[in-house]
Amino acid sequence: MNQEKIGKFILKLRKEKNMTQQELADKLNVTDRAVSHWENGRSLPDLSLFSKLCEILDITINDLMSGEKVDNKEYIKNLEKNMVSLADSLKQKRKKQIKISILIIIILLLGFFMYNYYYNSYEETVTFDNYMMMCNIYNKELTFSIRGTSILNEHHVVKNIDGKDIYIFNYTLLRKNKDFYAWELKQGVSRLANDNYWLQASHHNFTLKNENVEVYYTELPLSKFDKATENEIRELLTKSHKMNCWNEADYIDKIMRGKIMNLNLANMK
To answer: pTM here?
Structure first.
């Protein structure tokens, strides 16, 4: 079927009947834009509209598919030709619909896998909290702890500046663990309020090679420290949190078993 020819034919017949695009559209329960698309050859009427459209324009379906009024002698010939053309048009339309369906499925699957990857692999940096995060240096061992939770991922770098070993920590939380993390913290606060024990905690131990040590917690990506010069590291440290480390042999024992009346470790001495 010649789409452009059919469009011009519809336009001609509509004008002969003194109808506007809107009037024809109203009779067919479609938009005037759809009629405009037909007449400009950009699309064809839906097959379900053929019978009604032909009735309004006083033509046969064979006339419509031919894009002109068909002579009786040519009627059968044109009908066969139009049927073949219609079958081919339907086949092409079905192929297009299948391609669109496959594309939609691919997009949905891609969206699902991206969300699944984000949910199971994406890590959020944990904001520094002076009441949760603490460090202890005793007998050439550094212990960095976070109270209230046990599911954080520990990351750190060590930089030697001016004879000091600078330990820089960063903790992250997998997106999928966020609800459980909130539950653990809520349990910790609840136990604190009821004057019970605080059971959740995360500890990481490091053997010190240098007695001159400083400890920082940062919310910046550690990759920035890896690639930075000494002066750049000093600048990054000003944007990080310097830790005041304790010096006690039974630090971990106090954290795990000590009754926390408030969040001041001095009360546990």
So the answer is: 0.52
